[in-house]
Amino acid sequence: MQRQSREWTRRGLLYGVGGGFLIGQQLVQAAAAQQPVPKQKAENAPFPPERRLGWAVVGLGKFALNQILPSFAECKRSKLVALVSGTPDKARQVASQYGVEPGNIYDYQNFDAIQSNPAIDVVYVIVPNALHPEFTVRAARAGKHVMCEKPMAPTPAECERMIAECRRANRKLMIAYRAQYDPFNRTAIEMVRKGELGKLKLIVADHGRILDPADPADRWRMDKKLAGGGSLVDIGIYSLNATRYLTGEEPVAVSAMVYSPVGDPRFQQVEETVSFLLRFPSGTQATCTSSYGCAEVKRYRVFGDKAFLDLDPATDYERHRLVVGDKQGEQEKQIPNQNQFALEIDHLSECIAEEREPHTPGAEGLRDVRIMQAIYEAAASGQTIRL
Ligand code: NAD
Predict the structure, then answer these.
(1) The GFO/IDH/MocA-like oxidoreductase domain covers which part of the protein (predicted)?
(2) Residues 150, 172, 199, 298: which is the catalytic one?
(3) 27: pLDDT confidence band, cut at 50, 70 and 90?
C-alpha cells in the first residue's frame, strides 16, 4: 500500500496541474478548477477582538442556533456583534447568551438600519431559501459584505441579481458551502486532483434524511414558495457540489428521475427523491441521489483506475471518515477534525481584509442552481439535458 502510494504521488504530478487535469493530451479546465483551494490562514494565531470583523446573523433558526452561533467561539478573525430576528424575546435571550449588545438587535423590518452601524462588517443570511435574495440585496445596499446559506436562491435569475447587487455595492458575496472548508473534504479534493486514485472514472454521492413535519425547521421545506424545491435543493446539493469540487470540472450533460410517494402530505409541493447522472468533460461520470425518505446518509465514493476513496460521512457537522482502498486493502486517513463553520466564517473575514475573492463566491452558488434546474428539467422531460 505504501509503495503504491508513492507511485500515485509521482503519477499525481501528471494529473494535478494548478487545479486543471491533464487527461491524455487534453487540459480540461473548468471555472471551479481554476480556483486554488484556500489556504488555512485561520490556523494561525487568533486576532484580538478589535482586529476581528463584526458579523450579524439574520435568522435565529435551528441551524443558526445550533451550529453557527456557537462556532464564533472557535473563530480567529470574526466576532458575532449583531442579531436579526422576527422574535424579540428569542433575540434578547440569544443576545445575552452570546454577549451581543441589546442595541445591536434588529428585526426584519428595521434591518436596513444596519447601514449606520459600523460594528457590522458582514451579514450572514440563514433564513428559508426563498428569502436569501431579499436579505442579501438589503445587506449589500446597507454596505455590508454577505455570507448566504445554500441553496443560494430558488432561480438562476435571483442568483444573478444577488451577484449584481453585491458587485454594484462593491461588497463580497460568499455562499456557505461549508464542506469546501472542511479538512476531510479538502484532503479528498487534494488526493483526487493529485491523481492519487489514478485516473478519475466515477463518483457516487448520496444524501438522505427523513423530512419531519413535526420539526418547525422542516415545515417551510414542504412549501415550494419558501424552499424553492425539495430534497434536491436542500441536501442533494451536497452530492452535486461534491462532484464539482472533487473533479474541478463542470458537468456537460445531466439526466434524472424524480419520485414522490403519492398521497404523502409532505410531498404535495416538493419532491421526496431525486436520482441524477452527470457527465464531465474528462469523461468522469457521477451517479447522485438525494432523498427526504431515507434515514441519515451523507456520503460519497470516488473511483479512480488505481484506487477508491470513501468519505462517509462526508458532509456531517462533526463526524467524518475517510478511507482509501485498492486491491491490497483499505486504509483510514487520520485527519485532525476542525470546526468547518468557523473555518468558512474566517475565510470570508480573511478575504474581506485582504481584498480577495472568496473560494465559494456567488458564481459558485449560481452554478449549482443552474444545474439543479437542469436536473428538474431532465426528470420532467425524460431527456438528457446538455449544459
Ligand atoms: P429554520 O426554520 O430553523 O430557520 C429559519 C429561520 O428563518 C427561523 O428563525 C425563522 O423564524 C426565520 N424566518 C424568517 N422569515 C421566515 C418565513 N417567512 N418563514 C419561515 N421562517 C422564517 O431553518 P434552518 O434549518 O435553520 O435553515 C435556514 C437556512 O439555513 C436554509 O437556507 C437552509 O438551507 C440553511 N441550512 C444550511 C445548513 C448547512 O449545513 N449549511 C444546514 C441547515 C440549514
Answers:
(1) 186-307
(2) 150
(3) very low
- Find out whether the beta carbon of 149 lies less than 6 Å from any atom of ligand 1: yes
What pLDDT, in 10s, does the model give residues 198-232? 999 999 999 999 999 999 999 999 999 999 999 99
What's the pLDDT score for residue 271? Answer: 98
Helix/strand/coil for 123: strand
The string of DSSP codes covering 181-231 is GSHHHHHHHHHHHTTTTSSEEEEEEEEE----TTSHHHHGGG-HHHHSSSH
List the catalytic residue out of 181, 238, 300, 376: 238
Q: What is the pLDDT of residue 23?
A: 29
The answer, yes or no, to whether residue 285 has pLDDT greater than 80, is: yes
Residue 307 grid cell: 484506487
Main-chain phi, psi angles of 283, to 5 degrees: 105, -10
Written as nine digits, the cell of 104 is 445591536
Taking the model in full, what pTM does it have? Answer: 0.91
Q: Is 150 left (phi over 0), alpha (psi -120 to 50) or beta?
A: beta
Catalogue all structural domains in the chain, each as residue range(s) with its CATH number: 10-176 (3.40.50.720), 179-336 (3.30.360.10)
Separation CA 270–CA 286 (nearest Å): 24
Q: Is 6 or 322 the better-scoring residue by pLDDT?
A: 322
Cβ atoms within 10 Å, residue 367:
23
Query: Would you say 178 and 340 are in contact if contact means Cβ atoms under 8 Å apart?
Result: yes
- CB atoms inside a 10 Å sphere around CB 201: 15
Residue 339 has pLDDT above 80, yes or no: yes
Q: What is the share, in percent, of the chain residues with pLDDT greater than 90?
A: 88
Burial pattern 299-335, b for ≥16 Cβ within 10 A else e, equals bbbbbbebbbbbbbbbbbbeebebebbbeeeeeeeee
Q: Which residues, 6 or more positions from 225, have their beta carbon under 8 angstroms from its beta carbon?
A: 130
Known active-site residue 224: no
